[in-house]
Design goal:
With 239 residues, the chain is an all-alpha fold. 76% of the residues lie in helices and 2% in strands. The protein has a two-stranded parallel ribbon. The mean pLDDT is 82.
Length: 239
Amino acid sequence: MTELSLIGHIAELRRRLLWSFLSVALGMGIVYALYDHLVTFFMAPFLGNGHPLVIHSLLEGFITRFKFSVIGGIIVSLPVHLFHLVRFVFPGLSNKERQLIGWALAGSLGLALLSIWFGYHYFIPFVVRSLLTSEFVPSGVSLMLNYEQSVFYVLNFLLWGILTFQLPVLLEMLLVLNIVSRRALIRHTRLVVVAIMIIAAIVTPPDVISQLMIAGPLLLLYGITILIATIFGFGDSHV
C-alpha cells in the first residue's frame, strides 16, 4: 500500500469527515421522516401503563422532533463513522490489531443490541411502574407526564445502557493487549463490584432493585470476560 504524505493524510481525513457529516444529515432526514413511528416506540412504556403524555408549551412538539432527529441522525450514522474511522486507521495497523478491532466491533454491536433489548423490554417498564406507584405518588395527586421529558428519558437511558454495556469489550481488549492481567482483575474483584454498583446508581433511579437490574448483567458480563480470557489465554502477563 502506498504511503501518503502529510498533505495526503489531511486530504484523506477531510474526505472521510465530509462523508461522516453527510451521513449525519441523511440520518437526520430519515429519522425526521419516520418520527411518528419512532416516537411511538419511545412513548410505549408510558402509554402502556395508562399514562397519557402532555405538552406544556407551543414549541415543545417542534423542539422535541428536531432534537430527536439530530440525536437519531448521529446514532443512525454511527456505522458510517466507524467504517471511515477503521478505513483511515487500518493501514497503519498490524494484522493482529485489525483482527482485534474487528472482533471488538462485532462484540460491541452485540452488546449494544442486548442492552437495548434488556432495557426496553424489562428495565424501563419496571422503573416506570415503580416510580408511578403510590409509594412515590401520593393519592390525590394527578399525573401529567411531560411529552418531551418522557421521550428523552427512554432515549437517554437506552444510550447510557449501550455505553455501559461496552465496558466488557474494552476490558477484553485490555486483556488481549496485556495492558491488564487476569490475576489483577480477579484480585481486585471487590473494587470492580463497587465500581459497577456506583455506575448502576448513576444511570438508574434511586432504588436498590433498579440498581441490581443493571449491576447484575454487568457483573455477569465481567465474569464472562474473565472466562473468555482464561480460555484463550488473554492477559497471562502484565506488560
